[in-house]
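To fix ideas, we close by showing one paired sequence and structure record:
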Amino acid sequence: MCWCNIVPAHFLYVIQSLGGNVVRSAYGKDIIQSIGKSRKRFLAMMIITILGVAMFSGLQAACEDLRKSADRFFDIQNLHDLSVMSTLGLTEEDVAALEALEEVEAAEGIYSEAVTTQIGEKSFSILLQTLSEGGIDTPYLLEGYLPRQKNEAAVTQKFLDDAGLEVGDTFLIEEEPEEGEKGRESESPTFSNTIFTITGIVIDVTNVDNPSGSTSFRSGTLSEDVVFILPQAAETEVYTGIYLTLKDTKGLFCYDSAYEEAAARVKEQIENEIKAQREEARYRQVTEEAYAEFAEAEEEVQKELEEAEEELRNGEAELKVRLAEAEQELSDGEWQLSDGFSKLIDGERELLAREQEARTAFAEARKELEDGKDELERQKVPLAEAKVQLEEGERKLQDAVRELSIREAQAKEQMAAGREQLQAALSQTGETLQILSGQTESAEALLGEQWPQTVWEVCVDSLEGEMVAELRQAGNLEEETVFAAAEKCRMRTVL
C-alpha cells in the first residue's frame, strides 16, 4: 500500500467521525467519491493550504513579537514619549513649565550640536548629544561603559566603522563657527574640551536600526553618527530639545492606538496651554538679551568713539605742534637750500675752471706722450746698435774671462815653481850663512877690536839686496813673502 492510498482512508475516517450526516447524504457521497478519484491533486492542495496558513500565522506572530520586544526595550531604556523643539532654543523655564503639567511624569532638556571630526585623511560630521541625568533615552550599552568624565564619550558601532577606531582611542572635534549679523563668530565655543576618549559602544534608542542592512524599527533614522557625552561637557544654558515621559502611557503598548491617543492628548494640551505663552516669553527673553547685548555693544562703541575723539583732539594738537615745527624746518630748509644753491653755483664755476685746467694739463700730457713716442721711435735704432755692441762686449768679456782663467792657471804654476826655487835658494842661503857665520866668528875672535864692523854690515846689506832681487826674478813671488825671506837671511847673516 502506498502513502497516497493511506491518506484518503484516514481522511474519510475523520469526515465520517465529524459529520456522519454529511456522509450519508448524496452530496457528501459525491464529494467523497471525487476526492477518492483525484487523491494526488487533493493532497497537493491540502499541503499548499496548510503551508499558507502556517506562514501567515508565523508572520503575524513574529510581527507581534517584534513589536512587543521593541516596546519592552523602549520601556527598559526609558524612551521619551514626546519631544519639544524650538528654533530659538529652550531654557530651564520651558522645562519647568512642561514638567508642571499633570500628565507629564518627567521633563529634561538635552543639547545636541553637529560638529566636524578629522580622523586621518577622513573628515565627516557627527552629532554630539548630552546624556540625560534623569535616565531618559538611556543608550543601550554593548561594550565598555558610559562616559564618567567630561573628556569621555560613548559612540555607536556605525561611528567606529566609519572612523576606523576602537574603544580606548581618541578623536578630535571642531565646532562650526556661529556667525552673527555682520559675520562675527561667537565669543566662546560650546565645548571647552575638544579631545574625547571612546569609553563604550552603545545603541541609540531613538535611532534603532540595523547598521549593516536596511531593516529599521522606526522611520526617519539619522544620517549622522551620534556621540554621547556628559551634560557638563557642553557649557551652555540653552537646550536644543526637551524630552517628556508621560504618566498615562505607563503599561500601554507603544504601537497601540490607546498609546497614540494618550500622547496626542498631552501634545494638544502643550500646544493649547504652553506653546504660545512660552514662545512669547522666549521671544522676549531673546530680544531682551539681544537688546542688552546691543546696548552693551553700543556703550562700548560709544566709549571707543569718545576715546577716539580724545585721541583725535590730542592728535590735532600734536599735529599743530608738529606742523609749526615742520614750517620752521621748512623755512630753515629753504634758507639752507638758497645757501646751498649759491654754493652749488660757485662749485660749478670752480668745477669748470678745474675742468679747463685738467683739459689743458691733459693736452700737454698727451703732447708729451706723443713726443715720448717719437723719441722712443728715434731711439729704437741706437738701442738696437747698443744691443749688438752689448752682445759683442759680452762675448769679448767671456773670451777675456776664459783667457784670464788660463793665465791664472799659468800664474799659479809659475808661483808654485817660484816657491820651489825660493825654498831651494833659502836652503842654499842658509847653508851659506852658516858657513859665513862660522868664518865671521873666527875672524872676530882673531882680530878682536880691529874687526871692521861697519864695513861688514854694508857688505851684508848689499849682499841681501842682490839676493832679494835674484829671488824676485827667479820666483816672481809677492813682495811681502820676499821681504820675509830676506829678513830671515839677514838675521842669520848678522848672527
The longest strand covers residues 82-90. The chain has a mean pLDDT of 77. Residues 416-494 form one domain.
